[in-house]
Amino acid sequence: MTDKPTHSLSPRLQGVVIAIILGYFLILQGLNSRTSYWLLKDGQAGIAVVTKDIWGGHNSVGYRYEVNNREYTGKDERSWQDTDNHRAQVGQRAAVYFSASHPWLSRLNKPRVVVEGLPVILIALILEIFAIVTIVDPRSGWAFNLSPAKRKADSTRR
Asked: 46 is in which domain, residue-wise?
């Protein structure tokens, strides 16, 4: 019995879906790290007004604040650090932290580190590499093998 080369788009499509999901996660983490960096480097405290509750969990709200007579908006989880602000409702004031050099970067919670969850980010980055390998060459030993039929065929060949 000869092995026929398979030219299925299915493994590639699976790799694309995984790459998009992980890529989105990694981009968000990069943007989050950028904001944390600037807030830790030259962050200043100010006052924000909560403008709306944001659906999506984690007790998120939208807010607006002013720096040098210019208004900015942001969204973040309600402050878990400041007991006075952790229950701020729409229309109420809350502490905000913004970058002096990049005032559009802000948070209601002052960051503790530049990169939070580094082990998770590294795992996601490694999986992203495997997804890209799957897209380029689905038959590679480094590619994801998500097809049950292919796994069964691979196990019977051994």
From this structure: 10-157
Is the pLDDT reported for residue 151 higher than 60? no
**Which candidate, 148, 146, 155, places its Cα nearest to that of 16?**
146
Q: Is residue 71 one of the residues assigned to a domain?
A: yes
Residue 103 or residue 2, greater confidence: 103
Contact 35, 75 (CB under 8 A): no
pTM of the shown model = 0.76
Q: Can you tell me whether residue 31 is helix, strand or coil? A: helix
Query: What domain count does the chain have?
Result: 1
Q: How many alpha carbons lie under 13 Å from residue 70 in its C-beta half-sphere?
A: 8
DSSP 83: T
Question: Phi, psi at residue 21, to the nearest 5°?
Answer: -65, -50
Which among 6-20, 34-48, 72-86 has the top mean pLDDT? Answer: 34-48
Cα→Cα distances 18→22, 37, 122, 149, Å: 6, 28, 15, 19
CA distance 32 to 87: 23
